[in-house]
């Protein structure tokens, strides 16, 4: 099955944007993380169970007059593409996009306001803009683990390292009663740039697949290359 083209990726985002309120559809980056969270589960999750969460994070039903067939087709194609990569422990290109100039400036202003009374911490070259870029993908992954928690019943020691690679991009307040995970996050060096952060997302996904979907003869994945996919057109967040 061919990978989604840039045109189809933009089309998918347009279809997600068209989902009517009060439903809250994922965006394409959240969708990508969500699909990876599904694909590391010990048992395959049928599309009938996960597709409703694409068009609404809580899984509420679409209006009867809303045609989601094309949206579902594109989501299923990305699911198949990711499944093929994860099953073979191959590196893949997550849908993580650098912020537009306007979004970047707004994010910087937001963080400067939040941190005005706090001591600045050295985050290398990654910084708040990088965190904002990967946050939707991680949030989508976390949504999948919350809705489909079977993987989280596995040995906690095996889950801690890969979850820390993902959840270091979330606010500590979002991780309640997770002292060991927070300690692991504190032990990690911040990513130097967005490329390194994205590599961490892929590595975490494949490590979690080793827990949920172990291979008979696991092989070491090759190092990913920098994404050449340009960011989609600016959209409301």
Task: Characterize the structure shown.
With 237 residues, the chain is mainly alpha-helical. The chain has one domain: Four Helix Bundle (Hemerythrin (Met), subunit A) (Up-down Bundle). The chain contains 9 helices and no strands. The chain has helices spanning 6-17, 28-39, 47-55, 69-87, 101-114, 127-147, 156-167, 179-187, 194-212.
Residue-averaged pLDDT, rounded?
A: 84
- Assign the structural class, choosing from mainly alpha, mainly beta, alpha/beta, alpha+beta, or little secondary structure: mainly alpha
Could you give a short account of the major beta sheet? none
Helix content: 40-55%
Q: Total number of helical segments?
A: 9
Q: Which fold name corresponds to the CATH topology?
A: Four Helix Bundle (Hemerythrin (Met), subunit A)
- Low-confidence runs (pLDDT<50, min 5 residues)? 101-124, 222-237
Shape: globular
Could you spell the SSE succession in H and E letters?
A: HHHHHHHHH
Terminal-residue CA separation: 30 Å
Number of strands: 0
What's the CATH class label? Mainly Alpha
CATH homologous superfamily placement:
YgfB uncharacterised protein family PF03695
Beta fraction of the residues? under 5%
Number of domains: 1
- Annotated CATH architecture: Up-down Bundle
- Rg calc: 18 Å
């Amino acid at each position: 099955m061919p990978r989604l083209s840039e045109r189809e990726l933009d089309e998918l985002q347009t279809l997600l944007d068209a989902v009517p309120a009060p439903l809250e559809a994922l965006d394409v980056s959240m969708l990508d993380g969500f699909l990876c969270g599904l694909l590391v589960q010990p048992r395959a999750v049928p599309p009938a169970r996960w597709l409703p969460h694409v068009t609404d994070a809580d899984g509420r039903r679409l209006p009867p007059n809303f045609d989601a067939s094309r949206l579902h087709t594109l989501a299923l194609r990305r699911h198949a593409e990711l499944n093929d990569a994860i099953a073979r422990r191959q590196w893949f290109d997550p849908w993580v996009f650098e912020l537009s100039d306007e979004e970047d400036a707004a994010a910087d202003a937001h963080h400067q306001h939040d941190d005005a009374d706090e001591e600045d911490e050295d985050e290398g070259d990654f910084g708040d803009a990088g965190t904002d870029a990967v946050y939707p993908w991680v949030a989508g992954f976390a949504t999948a683990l919350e809705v489909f928690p079977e993987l989280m019943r596995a040995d906690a020691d095996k889950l801690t390292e890969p979850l820390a690679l993902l959840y270091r991009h979330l606010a500590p307040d979002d991780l309640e009663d997770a002292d060991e995970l927070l300690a692991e996050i504190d032990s990690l060096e911040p990513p130097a740039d967005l490329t390194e952060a994205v590599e961490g997302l892929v590595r975490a996904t494949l490590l979690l697949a080793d827990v949920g979907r172990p291979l008979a003869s696991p092989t070491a994945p090759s190092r990913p290359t920098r994404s050449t996919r340009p960011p989609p057109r600016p959209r409301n967040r």
